[in-house]
Amino acid sequence: MVVDYGSDDHNTLTSIDACIEFPDVHVVRLPSKRGAQAARNAGLGAARYPYVLPLDSDDRLATEPALLAGGSYPEQAVRLLAASPHLAFVHTYSQMFGAFDGLTISAYPCREQLLARKHHAPMSIVYRRTDALAAGGYDRRVRKWQDWAFAIDLLAARHRRGATNEISCIPGPLHEYRVHSRFARLSTAQVDELESVQLVVEKNLDYFHVILDEDRPAADVAAAVCASKPDRLTDLLHMAAVDLDQALALARGRKATLGSPVDVLGIP
Fold first, then answer.
1. CB atoms inside a 10 Å sphere around CB 87
2. Would you list the DSSP string of 24-76?
3. Is the peptide bond before 171 cis (omega within 30 degrees of 0)?
4. DSSP state letters, 231-253
5. Residue burial 135-174, b: 16+ Cβ < 10 Å; e: rest
6. Residue 162: partners with Cβ closer than 8 Å, 6 or more residues away
7. Angle, helices 193-203/146-160, rounded to nearest 10 degrees
8. In terms of DSSP H, where are the helices of 161-231?
């Protein structure tokens, strides 16, 4: 499925028009630019199959044959989800391309406890459509860190139904993410992180009380969640615990940026 939310680029429109010719591709057109959250919700509403993998315009799937011996990322993820109702979602590592080449700093297996403490949520997870709809889809109020907000909403909705929230990782990297050198990107916009986190915490306060084993007001929990967000060195140590060689390679390639939370390219 392709969702077009007000594209005005000629090449993009030509490509979308070409997709219409394929009988297995469903094109949904939104009349105006309503943001990625609205586009993803439109895709969720029109989806025909039980599993979903969101890919934004800067995302693509790996095509390296050596990485696909076990099948594509969607194929492997769907097999895992179909085999276990305890899985909340499946993710893979993300390889950046464009203005920067390399793995994201969060290239290690995701866990529910880490997500609840504001660790980075994988960009393109594979999940059940029914779980996403039960969670209310993507919250349009969240202007930044939408992947994290959605992952929490998904886990919290499953938790309320009594489901187990296991997460599976296919290292790959089977997902690729374009990094731009320009600065007019939402990911570099000045959005208050505590305010965004509090929106998510207020909606899911019961969930955070259980997962974090504490019973405090939403504002206090949101502040604690923000304070527990890992710095780059912590992320690197999590990676090293899983794959030391990978962590060493990343540290050598990004030694100039590991000491600071700020990066002029906005490299995740």
1. 21
2. T--EEEESS---HHHHHHHHHHH--SSEE----TTEEE---GGGGTT--HHHH
3. no
4. -HHHHHHHHHHH-HHHHHHHHHH
5. bebbbeebbbbbbbbbbbbbbbbbbeeebebebbbbbbbb
6. none
7. 10
8. 193-203, 205-211, 218-227
Phi, psi of 33 (to 5 degrees): -75, 105
Q: Give me the residue label for tokens 């909403």.
A: 153
The two structure tokens encoding residue 207: 């969930």
Question: Six-digit token pair at 67?
Answer: 């990485």
Q: Is the pTM of this model over 0.70?
A: yes
Q: Work out the angle at residue 46's Cα, subtended by the Cα atoms of residues 41 and 51, and round it to the nearest 5 degrees.
A: 80
Residue with tokens 């959250």: 37
User: Which residue's entry shows tokens 């769907």?
Assistant: 78
Classified by CATH at the fold level, domain 50-253 comes out as: Spore Coat Polysaccharide Biosynthesis Protein SpsA; Chain A (3.90.550)
CA-wise closest residue to 35 among 11, 13, 57: 57
Digit-by-digit pLDDT tens for the chain (268 residues) are: 788 877 777 787 888 888 888 888 878 888 777 778 888 998 899 888 999 999 988 899 999 999 999 999 999 999 999 999 999 999 999 999 998 899 999 999 999 999 999 999 998 999 999 999 999 999 999 988 999 999 999 999 999 999 999 999 999 899 999 988 754 444 545 778 999 999 999 999 999 999 999 899 999 999 999 999 999 899 999 999 999 999 999 998 887 777 776 676 678 8
